[in-house]
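Lab notebook, bench 4. Still working through the backlog of constructs that have no structural model yet. Next entry is a single chain of 448 residues. Request: give me the structure tokens for it.
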Amino acid sequence: MRTRPRTGNRTRTRTSRALAAALAAGLLAGCALLDDGPPAAAPDGGGGGDGGPVTLTVGVFGVFGFEEAGLYDEYEKLYPGVTIVENAAPSNEEYYPALRDALDSGRGLADIQAVEVGNIGEVVATRADRLADLGTATGVDEGAFLPWKWDQATTDENKTVGLGTDIGPMAVCYRKDLFRAAGLPTGREEVAALWFSDWEKYLGVGADYMADAPAGTAFVDSAAGVYNGSISSFPVRYFGREGEAIYKDSPAVEVSWDLAMQAAQGDMTARLKQFTPAWDEGFAEGGFATVICPSWMLGYIQEKAGPGAADTWDIAAAPKPANWGGSFLTVPEAGEHREAAARLAAWLTAPEQQARLFEKRASFPSSQAAYELPQVADATHPYFNDAPTGEIFSIAAKSIPTLELGAKDQPIQQQITDAGILPVEQRKLTPTQAWRAAERKIDELLDR
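Model written out:
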């Protein structure tokens, strides 16, 4: 989801040349980690330090928006001795395995390394000793963050190894014109009341929609989306509180799987796999009436549905608070400039910067203090009928439970959706056959 490089900055231009050369030599293997050569910067300093000029490197995947929102430039102006260089891998799939290896070896690390929420559980459980404790770093205010976000990056010994950047509180984006044609209410508060507090009620609305659905349309884009919305509202999913795999006996998995099967077998879905060309076409053609949408998906919907669908979309609160997405900034212990890096990480994740990032890049803050700032509190989205996005997503964010994140959360969910749910939706397997297929894949994954 984050893909665009910065342009026009002297630091970025120099970095791009160096990165291209390193890639050509095979040193980075497509990842936002540094080579093993000595740092070009002076000893630790800048950002309030006394050690003289310093170059701080930031490793991310895709586009985090810090550069694009001008935050690096502002920090360099505030602290003239600091130069910031960002190295971005195209995707987390390329980035995270290399980060894991670099943390193990203590070599090739940036001063700040981003970690995606799906990987933070593994990092906290297995590599917290390789990361600095940011809980007591200068400029860090624990109370400014959502408690559940803070907890995700904190060990049982109360060591906080990551500062939250963005989150992905969920809502339901829906087509007012399709709801109206199916005889359903269209006001966002009325719509939210239809399924308040229960994902089962959401599918009840789906059954009502399908009874009088406009020709060629479905209630929801995919059964996997239904599963994701439901499973993300549970605090315990695939791993227990001691880190043990419990997905086979998890109430959260059972409930969410059953909901996905209801949607798939009830012909409520457009049978699409998310983030594929066919899914994009579904937005453009108005092929489904709802999609469970985290805050970061709004721009995607607007792009794919196109200007012709402006004002046909609106946003209602999801049945239950749930989160999809988000990241953290960490500071490796092996870094050359730990104190200066921690100061930069604290500044980038402070409420004021998070509010500006939301205003410019639509990254929803993990800082609850940012919700009181006008960039968030007063935010509306013109494409979605001027929906009060700041209010809708802030309310959801404050009620999201702290998730028990295991080492393999993301790949387990991917196997359930890809090997399990999608084949049922596309009429290739029965629910029993599909669950067994997903189970085999997951057991192989856990045995590695």
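Notes after review: Residues 1-32, 35-48 have pLDDT under 50 and may be disordered. Residues 133 and 161 are 5 Å apart (CA to CA). Flag for follow-up if needed.
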